[in-house]
Design brief:
3 helices; 200 residues
Length: 200
Amino acid sequence: MKIEISNLKKKLHKAVIFCVIGACQLAPVIAAAAEEEHEMHMSVMDWVWKLLNFGILVGVLGYFLAKPIKEHLKQRRELIEKSIKESQEAKSLAAKALAEVEERLKLKDKEIADIVASAVESGEREKARLIEEGEKLKVKIVEQARTNIDFEVKKAKQVIQAEAVEASIKLAEEKIKARMTPQEQERLLNESIKLIEGKN
């Protein structure tokens, strides 16, 4: 920007010089025109004075406007430099903010990875716990089934023994009845009656 302002100053300086040189070059032409147009009754000196006045005007304007123009250019340069500085600061702040956002995103990615890892680990622990509980429940069910089977087997044995005893008694009665004669049966009956009477 400093180069641009310097170029602008040079161009302005060249323009003022060009005006002065142009005025000086026009002086003979105007003088010649004044001689040719004798009807106007203007002398060469009138044209010289006009050109001199114009030169003085340009000089005075250059003298008085140089400082305001320099001040304006200086202010313009300072404004441009300030804008550049502010834009660089804004760029720096934006880069810093971007770095912070990227860092936060990295932290978020790490947090997400940690959450996923924790969930997987928790799931594995829960799976192991459920398997362990399932094994314990299986053992309990097997023990309960064995207890029930043992109880049922014992009960069945008792029923079978009772039935076997009853069947044996019936079979023995039948065998005894088949072997005993009516006289023996009557004798046993009488003996049983005597035993009952004796107890009373």
